[in-house]
Amino acid sequence: MTVQERQATAAGLPVELNGINVIAESERKGRPRVLFWPWCASNIAVLSISYGSFFLGFGVSFWQATIAGLAGIVLSFLLVGFVSLAGKRGSAPTMVLSRAAFGVRGNALPAAASWLLLVGWETVLVALSTLATATVVAELGWSSGTGTKVAAFLVVAAVIVAVGMLGFDVIIKVQAWLTVLLAVMTVGYVALTLDEVSWSAVSALPGGSAAAVLGVLILAATSLGLGWVNTGADYSRYLPRQSCSRGVVWWTTFGGSIAPVLLVFYGILLAGSSQDLSGKIATDPVGALTTLLPTWYLVPFALVAIGGLVSGAILDIYSSGLALLTLGLRVPRWTAAGIDGVLMILGTIYLVWVASDFIGPFQAFLITLGVPIAAWCGYFLGDLALRRRDYADAELYDPRGRYGSVNVVAVGAMAVGTALGWGLVTSSADGFGWEGYLLGPFGLGGRTGSWAYANLGVLVALALGFLSAVLTAGRVRRQEAGDAARPPRWSPEHR
Description:
This protein has helices spanning 3-9, 36-41, 47-56, 62-90, 94-97, 99-102, 108-139, 146-166, 168-193, 199-203, 210-223, 232-236, 245-273, 275-283, 298-326, 333-353, 359-386, 408-422, 456-470, 473-481. α7 (108-139) packs across α16 (333-353), α7 (108-139) packs antiparallel against α17 (359-386) and α15 (298-326) packs across α16 (333-353). The chain contains 20 helices and no strands. By secondary structure, the protein is mostly helical.
């Protein structure tokens, strides 16, 4: 029985049985344009409208927020597009292909960071869905207490876990439908709230410093594309290896960035028109947007808001399951996704029913984990740029093969990049006061100076990782020449 037949008959559902194995040639299918659907659906969430308020919080003008924010979005999704090339060339998940750069065992460091980031994002998106539902119900005049939140929470979590466990083919189909539905409903939201925009108020916003503009760009990157770089190959690995490389990069970048670009632009207009709206967004980023709507559109808005968040969480839970398997957990892929679902549920309970603040911890989470992921991304892309041949499939699973057990340079670059990066970022959230320890010694004004919230550490980590890989190009040349290759002792199925 083929893998496709087993997928179609497993418990009567199309459960993907592939795990972190290299996808067989017979199973590779489709064209690069299919990548548009998962990336567009997972980033069309109306949460992007609220980012407009977050960006203006840096004290910048409308044009500064717009240019910096949109640049951060497009450039960060371009990185996702480049990472997706590895999936086409290696037909394995991102964190498995990362072993070629970091070593089979040394890759545990970026895999762990990736897993934490993905589980964190799942939790945030489910919490936002729960809070948004409660706000919509309250606007309708119904009870929005604990019972409503619990019901919304259970339904949303069940959908995310179920689709994530079913796997790739179901995800692609669900995301294609969600893209069309969410696009139509989002246009409806814009049409109904356009009269809330006050150009006189928006154009009167004072300009900010260069540090503030850079802070907007980096927050846009870490909030959107940089949060996906560690998953790019997970969705391109099913493409045939002869697929057009430019197409892979284009459809990933375009699909991921087109919706956020438009929604963030509109969000800046709305937030710049109303200080009251910006204040509400700080406590309930999605639910606050309902206050601008007529009552009859609240239910459709709830569907588009929750649908957008759910679509992003579906990709997160699928990739977090793969990252967990890469760390060495020997269970089926769908079981790993289920384990992450349990952690997501526990985290959501804390955010919704225990935590007193949302936006502070949310931004701190993005920036803090964004630093090591940026360091990994830089090194991975530098390594990928040097490669001229496809990966040696079996040796990605064998520490005695050409990729080795630990690449000390790569692990060291990620560790140093993270240490430098954390020293150049700050957060006002409780528990993160230790960050920014290098702002004073580097003459940047300390934790209260003008560069404190520019989050330079993300760029430093990314650049250091890339340069470290490029400067050690000899390792890649030896691997591709086969000088360091040894026959692998085993070739795991990892299904």
